[in-house]
Amino acid sequence: MRAATVIIIAMLAALCLGFGILLCLLAVHGLHAQPRENKSMIIEQGSAKIEASVGDGAWNVNDAALRAWIQNAADSVATYYGRFPLDRVDLRISPGGRVGVGRGMTWPDHGGGLIKIRVGSDTTAQDFADDWMLTHEMTHLAFPSMPDEHHWIEEGLATYIEPIARVRAHHLDENEMWFEMVRDMHQGLPHEGDQGLDRTQSWANTYWGGALFCFVSDVEIHRATHNAKGLDDALRAILAAGGNINEDWPLDRALATGDRATGTHVLEDAYAQMGNQYHMVDLDAMWKELGVAREGDHVVFNDAASMAATRRAITWGHAAPDAKVVPVH
Ligand SMILES: [Zn+2]
Hints:
By secondary structure, the protein is α/β, with parallel strands linked by helices. It has helices at 2-38, 63-81, 125-129, 133-140, 151-168, 174-184, 203-224, 231-240, 251-262, 266-274, 283-290, 308-316, and strands at 40-45, 48-54, 88-95, 101-109, 112-119, 292-295, 298-301. Strand 2 (48-54), helix 2 (63-81) and strand 3 (88-95) form a beta-alpha-beta unit.
């Protein structure tokens, strides 16, 4: 009897303990599952859906501010490319730090895209308005994945296009965009001994060397077509041909596809010049032609400059009032 009672008591105790553990697990799971469910939202851009979810951690960010940040970045990229590059994006936000946005990374994701980015737990609507990084990451969705030696074109495109896309969607001031371009573009100039974009593995070469390639190409496409076409036409054509981040393309194919769309050889020629050899660019002469000059902490435009119309066309695309001139091939 006593032994049996002990066994029964022990069994009951084990059952209670097991039940307790189960309750604990449910409670822990519930605690984590609940806020995560509350912190996900769908943002639509045309037919594209961006599913944003916020990971665990302190989080005081206003939902409307978060939604507007994502919407504005998506609208900027869609404005530049004529549509959002992919139908589906999984945007995973990690709370981290106090304010601001950082550590963005983008990957292909079974036909869609995956973006991971860090957002400070007290980030405000104003902090979001100052952010460029999410637009940069979304720009990566719109170009095919490249072999490692051409990583510069992936980062160069995102670096060059992000501010233009934001200006066109009215999320960045035109003056600020040109001020920053004049201030920063020289970082992409080659140094003594550099052997071209493919063979110089520095941060400056990858981001700003790539951006310089895009800028020079954009100006030359406008020059060759009397402002009828721009780099945006080349990039839209690459995207229309299926060249998004889920596709592995050789660089040659992307450049040839872009050149076909503008009726020029600008991209292939620029790569021949800058890809595998030292090639200096006279940036000062380009700013002068475009009619843009830095004065202290701002920029002044000269509309009498020889390529002032090209500056407006680069900024606004086909929306530029004087950008539509009969193309010359
Ligand atoms: Zn990037």
